[in-house]
Amino acid sequence: MKTFFFCLLCCATIASAQQGKMPTDTISMQKRFIGEIIVGGGYGEGGSFLLGARLYYFSFEFGMSGKGTKPDRQLDYAPPHNDYTLREFKNLPMTFTVSGYYPISSRLFAYPSVGLVSRTTQLIPQSNATGWYYETQSRTEQIEACYGFGVCYFLNSGNRSDIVLHLSARNILGVTAAIGFAL
């Protein structure tokens, strides 16, 4: 939890320090830094997917981790006997994060990320005799903190639509790589 608050503090510091500032080395760099569409994935809990958008020094990203569990077939009624074991199944975690970008150089930026992750856990009875799964007995929803840190680099493509390479590490999505298209 301390790491989450540290990342939140970093984002707030970047917001106040970068208020109204733009990279000033070239006019074209100022135009390139206005916005970006981000798409990526990585090696998190069974793989991960990331989609986001950046406007000036902040980005908003939606992510999903590929590790979710669910029985293949499930009956829609309670078990007809007491000879069963409760099994725990978790859904795909979904994350929403906000990142604050801090320029290290005209093309290299560092960014901390903070956000929330939503997870649902279900307890489903499995018959010890047949192995069949029956109706869900309980469902728990959790909201947890999501945080991480990353760097991005603007590749010069010779026109206004530069390509931006991202590499980040996050507690839920794991190590992710993304490509962005600067607007």
In short:
By secondary structure, the protein is mainly beta.
| Average pLDDT, all residues | 78
Strand tally is 10
Helix content: 10-25%
Number of helices: 2
Account of the protein in words:
With 183 residues, this protein is mainly beta. The chain contains 2 helices and 10 strands, in the order H-H-E-E-E-E-E-E-E-E-E-E. It has an 8-stranded antiparallel β-barrel with strand order 1-2-3-5-7-8-9-10. Strand 2 and strand 3 form a beta hairpin. The longest helix has 16 residues, at 2-17. Residues 14-31 have low confidence and may be disordered.
Name a few traits of the molecule:
single chain, 2 helices, 8-stranded antiparallel β-barrel
Ordered list of secondary-structure elements with their pairings:
Elements lengths: L1 H16 L9 H6 L2 E9 L4 E8 L2 E8 L18 E7 L3 E7 L1 E2 L4 E20 L10 E18 L7 E8 L3 E9 L1
Antiparallel strand pairs: 1-2, 1-10, 2-3, 3-5, 4-7, 5-7, 6-7, 7-8, 8-9, 9-10
